[in-house]
């Protein structure tokens, strides 16, 4: 057993950290945050693409780097720490993974090389408004090669070139009536409208489909299990983003408490402050350890990947939520201003908590796994 | 123990109801961010008109004595009015700090002439007051403020910066706490003045909050000259004066507003989860029960306070619990409601997310409430020390001249 | 509105406090606690009976004091504060209330005067082992005037003279198949066995019925709603016991932190200790306020009594649980010893949390009320 | 990242499995209080025999070098052995403190002859050691202890009282920290000795715990004479020596044992609520998920620590999280499980309540774990100060002679 990243992976992480520290300073995400017309940082995205990160797990035959998931995990952690305003998770964790999992040879040939080079951006369209997107209440329909209905919110929906759309393909309301449909978002019958969200540094849109042309990825009734498989993989990667963000929020909080004085002493000397940050540290360690196991399960495609992913996601969501909200709190008034970064972590933490489905869904899913597994 | 109105109370309530029914429009049932899209200036005009109408009908500052223009009513009447008014779509929030805290301080420390000049216009809503205490480096430790006033003949010259000043941009006057002697212990070198907010040396800049809005201001003082007659209380007695102001705050600091368990019940009823409607889910039910019990606990605590007040008791620091409980509950409840909305919960436009986006708004507002008017931590200190009688933490700044405390 | 107890009621409370401070010192409950053969403090029980408390709400025509529920609430608070080792709650809140609610004239005449004078002790037998006693899983059966089955644990079951037993009277498994049966526990067909519980200062027993004679209290299908009504009333009274216990535990904790020194200062000066006790105080205030509303609802038989009772119980359970567990914690090692009283509060708090059914039952019940009431 | 055994590890695991299969009986699946009703003396005999067998087969103190009688194994081998042994019904708990903390302290500070005398018998389970640090007035603040040793020729005379001494009643030897100079700052006046627990001046009295049991003792010292050669480290260097001991504790302090999520899942599966089985209830599911995630987080944190150790790193104070997390979780989980059992949850006899009463036992045990070996509060201080690098709280006793600190 060696439950740690390799030296090469650690080196990659260090490089990613250095790169993002330089390329993703405050000014970069503030530029996106403060301008409602900006969907992402084009410069940063370009630089990331040039680093080859978008092709990390894409096999070399499709123009990628052909690296493993552990490499993608360390990159994800650094992107999370930098709360980078780029469509990385949509294009890489969701769209690329979906195609790698179930794309036909021709779909792979058509999309993967361009995803690797960043020429196109992909995403996954799942939600249909403020409710759990379940087979029983899904309205978007795919019939005779045409897609109709509204997906909302779709991450990076304003800028993505194509989407994998979770849609009803059968007449019933079961999981077997759901398919995953690849749609060119620049084609006919697609209307996009950017929507306001909690985290304006990341784009989300309403996608309205009116008989838009699409093609299945995987079989007609396989969409639900395929989507769950994509989400499991993405959950591990997002967990690393959350761990990165949570640790950064804790550092920011810790540093401020060592600077700020009240009643003649550093506020870091007060037990209430210390214990709050100790609790954040504890949550972060648990989250990191569970994320590591998720990384291992992802990289080995372990049979308990679903369980590992849910566990990682639950811990990481908890950790980032706590660290980001208490980061504001220890700052006091100044932490509640727009100019100080605390709220960026608070916003991003809630976005990441909900983006692949909220905690209730994942907790329910985890316990379903535990009910079955004797190895609980 | 009697929960019903006494005959006098019932008669008063009827009077209030008649007044409100004739002059205001009722609110909707669940929480909403109603004035979200109305410009503040417009809301302010309505609020001033409403304040005047209340004053003319004897419903402004109900417990103020007649000599100050109040109707000389009882705390219970004040409560009855508040209960009834809360069902109507009117806004009294502009006047709370001025009439609740600043003007009473003026009344306690200024000469008769000054009081006569200011109390009436404030009461009828023509002039609004703000409170200028907090500074960037003096938040929880307000007495650590550094804005200074230097005596120059009959005048004082004020320089420095205040922050978190609610309404400074529309206020006419303010009371400002400044340091007049940095060479003595920090609480002993402070003095209070009233100032004209229209003074050209006062620069009010809106503070951009993390929630996006600007409810507060930074206020810069550059060579602002005030007369010695604008002093409230003796030189060096400013902390004592400020405590009078803050004691009044204690009663004003209330409940964190925003989304509550009623909204959560509505949401849960209309939200479908994998195994059925959310309202039938055990986790949702447990949380509704817990938050409901907390909300009721606060409500009945207020009733107990009012009962005590109507028996002549002064409410003490135990009222600090309201904000501690309700601010965190708002943060937790809104977070959980957004979780129920799943991925769509990140949207903040009412058209997309429904429920007037009250959960999303509350989620972004709650961190501020956990800080404003005393952080969770400061309030717990107050409860431990002033209610439970526990000793202070070690105070390294005690008795140390202000200019020798490490900054 | 006057949301406070009257001067008379406050005087009664003060008297009760003085009485119990004298009569229920540590030695009194330690005597019961340390001797597994002792079911309760006979001396204290006798003294309480002599005070007339057992007849507080029993009308004068049946030999009681004919006082109101508010008087009983203040007594309950003081009994809770004293964590008194007596069968008061079983005999007064449960058995007496059950008969007052639904007893026939002859049942009232037969039992109430003797309950008032403490000549007999009554109880309510509901649980059937470690699970929720629900109509669908209830095994104790009442047929043709005879009761059979096992109730476990029954509070004060070793010493009670009669019990109101919740039993299946119909053939189905619905609420309408449940009746409330009065059984003489000294009669034939009843076997008792004391059981060990978390709180050895209060008696509990296994009652086995083998064709024991019984008679209905209320109608044959009314047992379930009648039991719920008894539990609602008892919940308010127990909430006062919990409030009393919680405040006492907080005082004990506070006092100790002012005495104990570590690192050269009183531990009460440490923020972690202060904030912990501030949180206990907050929970206690909420609990007290909700208990007051429950008292009002009980004393006026308000339509929202069920809701008020559940609310009071949830708050009070929370408060006592927190105060008692953190009372141990602030004591450190000494708090974990048998000789220091901390554990008595911890034990009693869990007993009171479960005795009328656990938090899940009451939370579920509260939300059912809220779902219906528009006044939520 | 590799979760599987390397070929060497797999071979070692096989060896361990073979040894265990041949010599011990497997445990049941869920947590149980197996030795609940067996007399301790009897359990101790078995445990000593098992320790001897482990030693003879090279599985005792696996990382100890051969010169001390250990097999000179790796930390990873230690972990593998622990993983495998945890599935068997054997008890190594009697030796943890002695071999994990006391004997290493002896090895670090005593002369060769003393080591030779003691290490072997300890390793093969013939002699057991205890640690005598805590005192009634010195818990979190251990260095505030007052048991004193006064020099008398070549000997020292010890008087005072220790408390919370695990196993003192069956121990043969102990290491004791005492004050040898009350006139200097508190950390500077301490000295460490080893003592023979059979000394007639040592009176061991079982401490009656709130849980009813007696796992710990009070130990009274009355004119106990020890030779100066029993001193471990220099006079006045006792705190430094104690830190060596406590650093070893850090690795030993583990997980709060007792009921865990597996037991809760079992209970929930078999418990019927109003609307169906508890395992299908949302509140139950949410809690299982949260506690499972915490348990896994701790488990994988241990794996990370072991991986770091096998790469030569020394585990740091970050291991303090294990007890903080698991002690409170035990308290919360057992409380919740009892809630599910409803009124019947108050029963404590396995015959009445099932599940071997593991929940009730855990509920009464958890408050002790939250205190023993560093309270929740002290451990959070340690994390804040030693891991996050935050400054100490104000220390009013710093540099003050011990006999001048207010007691």
Name of the CATH class of the largest domain in chain A = Mainly Alpha
Mean model confidence by pLDDT of chain B: 92
Total of domains of chain A: 3
Overall mean confidence score, pLDDT of chain A: 96
* CATH architecture field of the largest domain in chain B: Up-down Bundle
**Oligomeric form:** heterotetramer
Number of extended strands of chain A: 9
Helical amount of chain A: 40-55%
Tally of discrete structural domains of chain B: 3
CATH superfamily of the largest domain in chain A: Butyryl-CoA Dehydrogenase, subunit A, domain 3
CATH topology of the largest domain in chain B: Butyryl-CoA Dehydrogenase, subunit A, domain 3
Question: What's the total count of β strands of chain B?
Answer: 10
Low-confidence stretches of chain A: none
Give the low-pLDDT segments of chain B. none
The radius of gyration of chain A is 21 Å
Order of helical and strand elements of chain A:
HHHHHHEEEEEEEHEEHHHH
Distance from N terminus to C terminus of chain A (CA atoms, Å) equals: 21 Å
Strand share of the residues of chain B?
A: 5-15%
Question: Would you spell out the secondary-structure blueprint of this structure?
Answer:
The complex is a heterotetramer, with 2 copies of chain A (376 residues) and 2 copies of chain B (407 residues).
Chain A: H1 7-23, H2 26-33, H3 42-51, H4 69-81, H5 88-102, H6 105-116, E1 122-125, E2 141-143, E3 146-155, E4 162-168, E5 178-184, E6 190-194, E7 204-217, H7 223-259, E8 261-262, E9 265-266, H8 271-299, H9 305-331, H10 342-355, H11 359-372
Helix pairs in contact in A: 1-4, 4-7, 5-6, 5-7, 7-8, 7-9, 7-10, 8-9, 9-10, 9-11
Chain B: H1 7-23, H2 40-56, H3 75-85, H4 96-109, H5 112-123, E1 129-132, E2 148-152, E3 155-166, E4 173-179, E5 190-196, E6 202-207, E7 216-227, E8 231-232, H6 238-252, H7 261-270, E9 272-273, E10 276-277, H8 282-310, H9 321-340, H10 350-353, H11 358-369, H12 376-387
Parallel strand pairs in B: 1-4
Antiparallel strand pairs in B: 2-3, 3-7, 4-5, 5-8, 6-7, 9-10
Helix pairs in contact in B: 1-3, 4-5, 4-6, 7-8, 7-9, 8-9, 9-11
């Amino acid at each position: 057993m060696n439950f740690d990243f390799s030296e090469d992976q650690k080196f990659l992480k260090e490089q990613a950290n250095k790169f993002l520290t330089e390329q993703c300073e405050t000014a970069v995400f503030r530029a996106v945050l403060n301008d409602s017309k900006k969907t992402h940082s084009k410069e940063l995205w370009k630089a990331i693409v040039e680093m080859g990160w978008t092709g990390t797990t894409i096999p070399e035959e499709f123009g990628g780097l052909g690296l493993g998931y552990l490499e993608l995990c360390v990159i994800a952690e650094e992107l999370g720490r930098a709360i980078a305003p780029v469509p990385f998770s949509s294009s890489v964790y969701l769209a690329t993974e979906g195609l790698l999992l179930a794309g036909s040879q021709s779909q792979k040939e058509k999309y993967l090389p361009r995803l690797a080079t960043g020429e196109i951006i992909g995403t996954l369209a799942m939600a249909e408004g403020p409710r759990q997107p379940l087979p029983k209440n899904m309205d978007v329909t795919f019939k005779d090669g045409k897609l109709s209905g509204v997906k909302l919110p779709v991450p990076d929906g304003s800028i993505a070139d194509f989407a994998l759309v979770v849609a009803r393909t059968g007449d019933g309301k079961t999981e077997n009536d759901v398919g995953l449909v690849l749609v060119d978002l620049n084609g006919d019958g697609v209307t996009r409208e950017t929507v306001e969200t909690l985290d304006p540094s990341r784009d989300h849109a309403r996608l309205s489909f009116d008989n838009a042309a699409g093609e299945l990825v995987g079989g007609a009734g396989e969409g639900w299990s395929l989507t769950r498989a994509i989400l499991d993989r993405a959950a591990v990667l997002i967990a690393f983003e959350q761990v990165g963000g949570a640790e950064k929020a804790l550092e920011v909080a810790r540093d401020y408490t060592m600077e700020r004085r009240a009643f003649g002493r550093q506020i870091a000397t007060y037990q209430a402050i210390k214990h709050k940050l100790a609790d954040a540290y504890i949550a972060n360690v648990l989250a990191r350890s569970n994320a590591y196991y998720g990384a291992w399960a992802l990289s080995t495609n372990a049979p308990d990947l679903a369980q590992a992913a849910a566990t990682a996601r639950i811990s990481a969501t908890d950790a980032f939520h706590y660290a980001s909200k208490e980061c504001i709190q220890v700052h006091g008034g100044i932490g509640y201003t727009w100019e100080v970064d605390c709220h960026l972590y608070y916003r991003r933490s809630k976005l990441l908590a909900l983006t692949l489905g909220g905690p209730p869904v994942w907790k329910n899913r985890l316990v379903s796994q535990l009910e079955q597994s004797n190895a609980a | 123990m009697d929960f019903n109105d006494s005959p006098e109370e019932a008669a008063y309530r009827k009077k209030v109801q008649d007044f409100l029914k004739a002059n205001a429009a009722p609110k909707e049932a669940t929480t909403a961010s109603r004035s979200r899209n109305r410009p503040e200036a417009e809301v302010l005009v309505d609020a001033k008109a409403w304040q005047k109408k209340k004053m003319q009908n004897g419903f402004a500052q109900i417990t103020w004595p007649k000599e100050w223009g109040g109707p000389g009513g009882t705390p219970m009447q004040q409560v009855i009015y508040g209960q009834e008014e809360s069902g109507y779509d009117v806004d009294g929030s502009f006047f709370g700090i001025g009439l609740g805290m600043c003007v009473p301080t003026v009344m306690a420390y200024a000469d008769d002439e000054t009081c006569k000049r200011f109390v009436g216009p404030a009461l009828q809503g023509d002039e609004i007051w703000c409170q200028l205490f907090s500074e960037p480096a003096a938040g929880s430790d307000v007495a650590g403020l550094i804005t200074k006033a230097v005596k120059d003949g009959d005048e004082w010259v004020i320089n420095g910066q205040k922050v978190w000043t609610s309404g400074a941009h529309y206020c006419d006057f303010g009371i400002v706490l400044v340091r007049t002697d940095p060479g003595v212990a920090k609480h002993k070198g402070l003095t209070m003045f009233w100032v004209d907010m229209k003074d050209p040396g006062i620069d009010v800049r809106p503070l951009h909050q993390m929630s996006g809005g600007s409810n507060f201001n930074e206020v810069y003082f550059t060579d602002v000259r005030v007369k010695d007659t604008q002093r409230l209380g003796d030189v060096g007695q400013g902390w004592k004066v400020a405590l009078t102001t803050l004691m009044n705050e204690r009663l004003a600091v209330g409940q964190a507003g925003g989304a509550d368990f009623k909204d959560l019940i509505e949401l849960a009823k209309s939200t479908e989860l994998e195994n059925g409607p959310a309202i039938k889910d055990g986790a949702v039910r447990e949380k509704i029960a817990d938050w409901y019990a907390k909300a009721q606990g606060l409500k009945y605590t207020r009733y107990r306070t009012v009962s005590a007040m109507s028996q002549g008791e002064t409410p003490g620091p135990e009222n600090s619990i309201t904000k501690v409980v309700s601010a965190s509950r708002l943060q937790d409840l809104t977070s959980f409601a957004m979780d129920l909305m799943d991925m769509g919960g990140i949207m903040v436009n009412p058209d997309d997310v429904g429920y007037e986006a009250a959960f999303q708004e509350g989620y972004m507002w709650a961190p501020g409430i956990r800080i404003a008017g005393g952080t969770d931590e400061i309030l717990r200190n107050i409860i431990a020390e002033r209610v439970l009688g526990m000793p202070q933490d070690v105070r390294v700044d005690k008795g140390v001249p202000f200019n020798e405390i490490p900054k």
